[in-house]
Design brief:
Helix content is about 50%, strand content about 10%. It is of the alpha+beta class. Helix 20 crosses helix 28.
């Protein structure tokens, strides 16, 4: 049979001759042909509109990246210099480094009513105290020995002197002439003589009084607030307690802030370092603690990031290099990781320089960029490996252009989807989540540009070095042509595994059924799990787990558990006289609300009226003015001033006597001078504390019934808001309920679930649209989208098994999953569209061509944050757990589930112009009736089939990638000189490197060994030759 077709367009022309060998199909080939073999030479005029758009998009992107690659290859050093200068310029923004930790700015949802309420409270009732608390734990803190030990601690603290010579006396909040310190020692007035002479009987007698008042501050003491894990006898008397607490109160102002922080540091060192030999444990939390532990955690995590970079560097170097002095790529790998470092600098520099808030959760950005950046580099390097030997003979500029033509579309698909997914997240109302997504978008964009330019420039320089045969470690050394690498220098375990094991295994029908069933069951279980996941936010989780602050939180929750959220009901400026009845109605409504502990409701007006109606003195002339009274009180040295005022009578608002306001203040001032009333000074805000004329703000306090879930807390808050908001006041005025931090937590939790679902839905839509535009095939985009959704579902469901609740941090990372999950599936979907053959064949080819890069990218991402498993920071531990799930489920759906689905219902490939070179050669081979050799006038035109998995008697395994190579003339002494004219089998080991045929057309490829078949001149030989090859 005569054949007049060349094997490959652009190859060496084959002269006419007889077909010397035809290979019959194997059983596997017959199975594959149950589906229609796709036609790749259809004319575009027969394409649908979507396919025309598809071809236009793909061709446009490939042309753009081809030109970009050639441009960078022409100017590699200029590209590197410009990239470095741009990143350095952006890095100037790092000078404005500031990590925001204030809850309102970091976590409180934008648009929340609490923004205005917070600023009102801050203006009218500003925080003026720095709270310092120490918890003492001992066998029995009420023992004489423990009490004396605690007094030792008290004495040492009193003697602290900070750098500027200040002591606790200058820094503390005072009650009269002494510093306010609350502890069990208060029962004995911190008197050294009394405490040192205490007996155990005296201690028990003191703590078991029916009503206990502080001898120092005259307020009633609640021992339940001072003692923890109390044990009582049969008579309900206290006999022991496991813990007690100290409270110090320092002034909060700018003038003494540095001194106060220095004093707190001394207290922290005393408690955590020296301690006391007679006390088991002590725990401390101060006003500076949160900032301290966050900085410590950040410094520790920088070390983890450095080690993570080292792990990724070693893995990347091992994967992209070859076992050869010339083709190792240690400097290329280092340059690639440097591009990730440059992207991190650019991201932080631009974000901080433009004033975008940087919060605690933003610290995971480098780990995210490390994982994404390495994935893109693997794709580029895999495209370089996939170049055919003929393409390898092109100039470096042309080679780099071809590499970017193939890899550019893939990294564009994943990078653009990541950017869009993060941009969607930036629209959320939670500031920390929003700004993190902005940083992530900037980072991925920077990576995309740097990988397409800077990294490609480094690849260009490395390819030029290889072309000059310079040593990989010492480029100054040049190897001559006699240097031959180790015979397995180009061995690729991943590619061989994908080609010979995974691909054939995955395309078996029983395996497909199992994979689909497993994926469905897995997603079903995780949907159920996510529905039942907790929705809660607890900032204490972000304290490092081995820090003294976390130990304090654990002890505090054990010995002094929260007995309900403490809430303030604030009222602004109004006509308080006219609204007494309304305010008292509000007070009654609060007391009877089931979500409120009625015995905790404390209202200055109720106490004032009770005092007025029962104990108010009447010994001063009724015509005494407010000013006269204040002058008398201010000028009197006696505390027994008892002005005579009339009882306030209710008047209609239009008939109020002129003196009613002054009368109110006269009575109120008198009340607040009493022992009962003086506690209410902090409950009222006057326009002038010395000569008040009006009340600018007031408050009522209470505690909610203890809630065990975020849902309960939110319901309690909403109920109280509804009650208060429905009250209207004569002459205007408003009231609102406020709790810091509980209501702030509630506000975050309230929108968190809705925001999470919203952002996930928007990210899903955008991911689908972007993949549709860039992959340019509707059905492939649908399948990729399904895999991405399944991955996110599995990750979300697994969170419950990791004991992770839905909070702001987990929501951030879950949104990241959409971007990262696309990386695993989109590469596979795009690659499938570039291969021809049956669906099974295309699935196997896809696994071989892109599978190693996808797996390496996923595994390197895992390596990047592997050490975070031991991070002391909850945020980083959370990051490790969720991202480990992303890698596992992403690789499963990308390299297992998606190939199976594509092998069953995958669409036709792209137009012929976009098919991979390997597939073009295979199609030409099939069109030529599987022609192997053409002979004319004794000249041999050789064809190389690569990689070949051939068996005897012409039976060829269907898993072939066909590549054509030019002929090489046989040399004397070669194996082919021994062939005779008889029925001959040519056997050439496929896994060995034959130096005699290692010229410019010979290369041992990473996805299989090279086959060279030179033939003798005897015409009779070709009539009887049987082709064979050893299985790789």
């Amino acid at each position: 049979m005569s054949v007049n077709k060349p094997l490959m367009n652009g190859g060496h022309p084959h002269v006419n001759g007889d077909l010397q060998h035809h290979q019959p199909p194997t059983q596997q080939q017959n199975d594959d042909n149950d589906g229609d073999r796709t036609e790749t030479n259809k004319k575009c005029c027969n394409c649908s509109l979507l396919k025309k758009i598809s071809n236009g998009i793909v061709s446009g992107l490939e042309l753009a990246f081809y030109r970009l690659g050639k441009f960078v290859a022409r100017h590699p050093w200029k590209t590197i210099l410009i990239s470095v200068l741009v990143c350095v310029a952006a890095g100037v923004g790092l000078m404005k480094w500031h990590e925001e930790n204030e809850y309102v700015k970091v976590w409180l949802p934008r648009g929340s009513r609490m923004y205005d309420e917070y600023h009102w409270v801050k203006e009218h009732f500003p925080e003026s105290i720095r709270y310092e608390k120490v918890i003492v734990e001992d066998t029995n803190v009420l023992s004489v020995e423990s009490i004396n030990a605690m007094y030792d601690i008290y004495e040492k603290v009193t003697e602290f002197v900070v750098n500027d010579g200040l002591t606790i006396n200058e820094l503390c909040i005072k009650a009269g002439p002494i510093c306010r310190v609350n502890s069990i020692l208060e029962l004995w007035s911190y008197d050294k003589t009394t405490i040192r002479s205490l007996t155990q009987e005296q201690v028990f007698q003191t703590v078991n009084q029916k009503v206990i008042y502080s001898p120092l501050y005259r307020n009633r003491l609640d021992l339940d607030k001072l003692l923890g894990d109390v044990e009582r006898n049969n008579e309900s008397k206290i006999v022991s307690a496991r813990a007690t607490s100290f409270f110090w109160f320092l002034k909060r102002n700018e003038s003494t802030q540095d001194s106060a922080e220095a004093w707190e540091k001394m207290l922290i060192d005393l408690v955590n370092g020296e301690g006391h030999s007679n006390l088991d444990k002590m725990f401390i939390y101060t006003a500076r603690t949160f900032d301290d532990v966050i900085q410590t955690a950040a410094s520790n995590d920088v070390g983890l990031l450095t080690i993570g970079f080292a792990f990724v560097y070693l893995f990347f170097t091992f994967n992209i290099g070859k076992f050869s002095h010339i083709e190792q790529k240690i400097f290329l790998a280092a340059g690639g990781l440097l591009s990730i470092g440059m992207a991190i600098i650019f991201t932080y520099g631009v974000g901080l320089g433009t004033g975008i808030m940087f919060g605690p959760i933003h610290q995971i950005t480098p780990f995210m960029l490390l994982g994404i950046g390495v994935d893109d580099m693997f794709v580029i390097m895999e495209s370089l490996k996939q170049l055919s030997p003929k393409e390898r003979q092109l100039s470096v500029e042309e080679r780099i252009g071809l590499v970017m033509k193939h890899a550019g579309v893939s990294i564009t698909v994943t990078s653009v989807t990541d950017i869009v997914a993060f941009a969607i997240g930036a629209s959320t109302v939670i500031p920390s989540l929003s700004t993190f997504c902005i940083y992530a978008s900037i980072g991925v964009l920077a990576l995309y540009i740097l990988q397409s330019t800077y990294f490609v420039a480094i690849v260009t320089i490395d390819e030029s070095r290889i072309e000059q045969r310079r040593n990989a470690c010492l480029p100054c050394i040049t190897h001559d042509s006699t240097y031959k690498p180790w015979k397995f220098y180009n061995y690729s375990l991943q590619q061989i595994f994908m080609s010979k094991v995974w691909g054939p295994f995955l395309t078996k029908t029983p395996v497909k059924v199992i994979v689909i069933l497993f994926a469905m069951v897995l997603s079903g279980v995780n949907v159920w799990s996510f529905i039942h996941i907790k929705h809660d936010f607890d900032p204490s989780m972000y304290l490092p787990k081995d820090s003294y602050s976390q130990r304090y939180v654990t002890a505090d929750r054990r010995y002094f558990p929260d007995d309900g959220a403490f809430v303030q009901l604030y009222c602004g400026e109004m006509d308080y006289m006219s609204n007494f009845d309304t305010l008292m109605d509000l007070y009654s409504k609060v007391k009877t609300e089931p979500s409120v502990q009625s015995n905790t409701v404390d209202f200055w007006l109720a106490s004032f009226i009770r005092w007025k109606n029962t104990t108010m003195p009447s010994t001063i002339p009724s015509n005494t003015s407010l000013n006269e009274y204040l002058n008398e009180v201010n000028g009197s040295s006696s505390s027994s001033v008892s002005p005579n005022v009339s009882l306030i009578q209710p008047y209609p608002s239009e008939n109020l006597p002129v003196s009613s306001s002054e009368s109110l203040f006269l009575q109120l001032m008198q009340f607040m001078m009493t022992e009962e009333g003086r506690v209410y000074w902090r409950y009222l805000k006057f326009d002038d504390i010395k000569k008040p004329t009006k009340i600018e703000g007031s408050l009522l306090t209470f505690r909610h019934v203890k809630c065990l879930s975020a849902t309960c807390n939110i319901a309690a808050m909403d109920t109280m808001r509804d009650i208060v908001d429905h009250f209207s006041f004569i002459g205007g005025g408003t009231c609102f309920v406020y709790s810091s931090p509980q209501y702030m937590f509630n506000e975050t939790n309230k929108v968190l679930k809705l925001e999470l679902y919203r952002n996930l839905a928007l990210a899903a839509v955008c991911v689908f649209v972007v993949t549709l535009v860039l992959i340019a095939n509707f059905w492939t985009s649908v399948l990729v989208f399904i895999c991405v959704v399944f991955t996110v579902i599995d990750v979300a469901g697994t969170m419950q098994f990791w004991d992770i609740s839905v909070d702001t941090a987990s929501s951030v990372i879950l949104i990241l999953c959409f971007g990262l999950a696309v990386d695993y599936s989109a590469h596979v979907g795009h690659s499938f569209m570039t291969h021809t053959g049956t669906k099974n064949e295309r699935a196997r080819k896809t696994l071989v061509s892109i599978g190693p890069a996808v797996f390496s990218g996923g595994f390197s991402t895992f390596l990047a944050f592997l050490l975070l498993v031991n991070s002391i920071s909850y945020g980083f531990t959370l990051f490790f757990r969720i991202f480990t799930s992303v890698v596992i489920f992403g690789l499963f759906h990308g390299l297992v589930f998606l190939p199976v689905i594509l092998s069953l219902i995958g669409p036709s490939p792209y137009n012929t112009n976009f098919i991979s070179e390997n597939d073009k050669i295979e199609d030409k081979y099939n069109e030529a009736a599987e022609m192997i050799i053409n002979v004319k006038n004794g000249d041999v035109q050789m064809v190389e089939l690569h990689p070949v998995n051939a068996k005897l008697n012409g039976k060829v395994n269907s898993d072939n990638f066909w590549k054509e190579y030019d002929s090489v003339e046989p040399m004397n002494g070669d194996i082919c000189d021994t062939f005779n004219d008889n029925n001959t089998t040519i056997g050439l080991p496929l896994n060995e490197h034959n130096p005699r045929y290692s010229g410019s057309y010979y290369e041992q490829m990473s996805n299989g060994s090279l086959v060279q078949i030179p033939f003798p001149d005897s015409p009779s030989f070709y009539n009887n030759v049987k082709y064979s090859g050893e299985k790789i």
